[in-house]
């Protein structure tokens, strides 16, 4: 049996499942590779509490399930508890992305008492204060590790993100030991300092060279095996190692194509989520804060989601073949490549609907990069 | 459950209609999510605390095609399942 009226088949969900909310533009740190400061998301102001609370009611009406609270640094907001209570009242669950240095026992106890916190992600970049603090500032390793301890004491799910850069490249083994063996986390994730925000001005000092990337890939693949996949990544050297090795294998086997590859399919974000900047402007993703889609409490979220031409343009990028780009001309990897992250394509080239040069395997190899041995111990 | 019992949804549960009349029931208290087919969605929307199961079956017959004879039994099982998962309950009778 079935209801008599059936909606026309569309493959876009009615409303976003989750929203990334930059609830504040403030941060107590200034990390040298920070992707927020000096980016289009660095809006120099915060919204009043009531504006967020009103917006959460709209999220409830839209049946949004998850809110990812970020900033700059979410724990800088003095009304954070009120905001979280608003999220809970509006039947959502939440995650927090944080540098971990401002977490107090009282705040952790509050978070635990909501029973809606799916995780707090803390950034840890080194196994020692010297290495972690190289980019994040003195004293912050000790504070962040203390933050993790407090959260865990309250039974909150804690995850750690390690951003790989020139200063911690040789510390990865010790970082894995610290996080997985000493602290006893179930897993942690990695990425790398990428050409966004402050990193654009400090690229020489922090970003990995092709040789550094090779080293990072090799080390992370080895640790990934050693710790039974307890290290994961959606971007950065470990993700690249896995994708690039697959692409190279497909090329050697002369496979016709790989499913879902050959076009700009590298980002599925605009199909399931939206983001809001600290000033209330709705954007497709925090990393693409330059694309303004509307304003909360002024524009209808459902309408923006379904009909905004910029969102449609981003969703349609998955139909653009890589062979259309001069950049990819003659590349053997076209049938196996996704063109990767549109936000990085934008910060490097000023155009989202283009393959990202940063994640281009051919360019990496041309610049002297090497692929690690998949089976190396 | 007596025939006069009127099922009602757990107020913490969100109905998230996604594609082609299919939906997810999202329990924000636990984070659990359950898939609903279009008929399940129709039934969920009838759980307003004002209708008995028999009345919901009548609504189904009026609004859906090909409702089988044994629909009432299926509906009772479906609602019992929702109740066991904590997604729904019954309106308590006021004296
Ligand atoms: S990376 Fe995070 S902690 Fe560091 S300055 Fe940026 S927002 Fe603050
Ligand atoms: S040139 Fe780079 S981005 Fe283009 S298909 Fe080849 S590897 Fe992919």
Q: What is the chain-wise order of helices and strands of chain B?
A: EEEEHHEHE
From the helix content, strand content and strand pairing of chain B, which structural class follows?
Answer: alpha+beta
The CATH topology assignment of chain B is Outer Surface Protein A, domain 3
Number of structurally distinct domains of chain B: 1
Beta-strand residue percentage of chain A: 5-15%
The largest pleated sheet of chain A is described as: 10 strands, mixed
Q: If you average the pLDDT of chain B, what whole number results?
A: 91
What can you see in these coordinates?
The complex is a heterodimer of chains A (377) and B (95). Chain A is 36% helix and 13% strand. Chain A has helices at residues 49-61, 80-89, 105-114, 129-136, 140-153, 172-182, 203-206, 210-226, 237-252, 269-272, 301-307, 309-316, 342-349, 361-366; strands at 2-3, 18-22, 66-70, 93-98, 117-123, 158-164, 188-192, 231-232, 273-276, 281-283, 294-295. Chain A has a 10-stranded mixed sheet with strand order 8-7-6-5-4-3-2-9-10-11. The longest helix of chain A is centred in the middle third of the chain and has 17 residues, at 210-226. The model of chain A is unreliable at 5-10 (pLDDT under 50). Chain B has one domain: Outer Surface Protein A, domain 3 (Alpha-Beta Complex). Chain B has 3 helices and 6 strands; from the N terminus they run ββββααβαβ. In chain B, the strands form 2 sheets. A 3-stranded antiparallel sheet of chain B has the order 2-3-4. In chain B, strands 1-6 form a two-stranded antiparallel ribbon. The two termini of chain B are 18 Å apart. Chains A and B meet through strand 1 of A and strand 2, helix 1 and strand 5 of B. One iron/sulfur cluster (SF4) binds next to loops of chain A.
């Amino acid at each position: 049996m079935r209801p008599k009226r059936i909606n026309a088949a569309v493959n876009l969900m009615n409303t976003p499942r989750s929203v990334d909310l930059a609830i504040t533009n403030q941060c107590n740190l200034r990390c040298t590779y920070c992707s927020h400061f000096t980016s289009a998301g660095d809006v120099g102001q915060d919204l009043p509490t009531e504006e967020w609370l009103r917006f959460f009611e709209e999220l409830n009406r839209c049946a949004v399930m998850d809110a990812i609270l970020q900033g700059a640094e979410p724990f800088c907001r003095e009304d954070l508890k009120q905001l979280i209570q608003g999220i809970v009242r509006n039947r959502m669950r939440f995650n927090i992305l944080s540098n971990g240095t401002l977490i107090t026992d009282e705040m952790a106890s509050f978070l635990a008492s909501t029973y809606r916190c799916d995780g707090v992600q803390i950034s840890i970049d080194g196994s020692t204060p010297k290495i972690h603090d190289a980019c994040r500032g003195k004293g912050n390793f000790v504070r962040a590790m203390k933050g993790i301890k407090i959260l865990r004491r309250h039974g909150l799910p804690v995850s750690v993100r390690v951003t790989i850069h020139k200063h911690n490249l040789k510390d990865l083994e010790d970082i894995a030991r610290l996080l997985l063996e000493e602290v006893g986390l179930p897993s942690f994730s990695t990425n790398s300092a990428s050409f966004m925000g402050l990193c654009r001005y400090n690229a020489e000092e922090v970003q990995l060279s092709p040789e550094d990337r090779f080293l990072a890939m090799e080390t992370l693949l080895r640790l990934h095996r050693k710790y039974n996949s307890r290290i994961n990544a959606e971007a950065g050297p470990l993700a690249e190692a896995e994708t690039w090795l697959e692409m190279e294998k497909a090329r050697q086997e002369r496979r016709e194509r790989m499913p879902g590859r050959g076009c700009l399919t590298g980002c599925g974000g605009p199909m399931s989520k939206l983001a809001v900047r600290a000033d209330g402007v709705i954007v497709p993703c925090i990393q693409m804060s330059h694309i303004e889609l509307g304003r909360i409490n002024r524009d209808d979220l459902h309408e923006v989601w379904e009909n905004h031409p910029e969102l449609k343009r981003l969703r349609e990028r998955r139909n653009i073949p890589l062979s259309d780009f001069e950049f990819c001309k003659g590349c053997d990897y076209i049938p196996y490549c996704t063109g990767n992250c549109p936000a990085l394509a934008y910060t490097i080239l000023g155009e989202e609907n283009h393959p990202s040069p940063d994640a281009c395997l051919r360019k990496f190899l041309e610049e002297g990069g090497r692929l690690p041995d998949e089976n190396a111990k | 459950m007596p025939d006069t019992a009127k099922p009602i949804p757990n107020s913490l549960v969100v109905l998230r209609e996604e594609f082609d009349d299919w939906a997810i029931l999202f329990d924000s208290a636990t984070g659990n999510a359950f898939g609903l087919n279009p008929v399940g969605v129709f039934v969920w929307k009838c759980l307003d605390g004002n209708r008995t199961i028999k009345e919901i079956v009548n609504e189904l017959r009026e609004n859906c095609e090909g409702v089988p004879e044994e629909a009432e039994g299926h509906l009772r099982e479906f609602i019992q399942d929702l109740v066991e998962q904590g997604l729904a309950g019954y309106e308590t009778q006021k004296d």
